[in-house]
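Collaborator request, handled under Task 6.
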Amino acid sequence: MKSVSIGGVDPGRSDGKMSFYRNHLKEGRLEIKGFFWAPPQSIVAEVKLSLDGGKTWVDQDKINLEKDSFIYSFSPKPEQDYDLRVAVVDTKDNASDAGDLPRAVFVYHEKSGEDMVQAGLLELASQYAARNQNGFNALISPGYQGDRGSLEDAVARDFRQFSEIKLNVIPSKVLFHGTDAKIDFHYDVSRL
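Structure tokens returned to the collaborator:
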């Protein structure tokens, strides 16, 4: 197996459970694509695909098999965990190991990625405006690469210095690259 993508995202680049949103769907369906190679004098006869870690397998007639690739699309259920396994079997009955590829565990969220990002930013701004430093810090990723102590000091200093300022955060653009998001936003500041 060369590679697999889910909704256009390579699961090998993820460290944990992946999240997909409405903007990853194509005509209401999540598309799984795979590319593989077969040894010389051999042709791929079938692709085995499971969405539950190998407990059950998708019917072969639902997988579009090409010479060196396949496409499978389905309508995901919101908030359901999926555990993708893929194996390829050639005409000589040689099968790839379903464990050849990194484990791909994912979940689909009914909201768009932009909706989820906007809700997170608004909650962060809400905690900031309420001067709830613990609530604000709880929303910061544990993977934050900066100095968390400096961040907490800056937030506390802002709470003291800007106690009469109202901050309105407005996300203006969200770009997705796999499961990472880049957010452009602007804000309006006014006196209370």
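The cover message to the collaborator said: "The longest helix spans residues 113-129. The first strand starts at residue 3 and ends at 6. Please let us know whether this matches your experimental observations."
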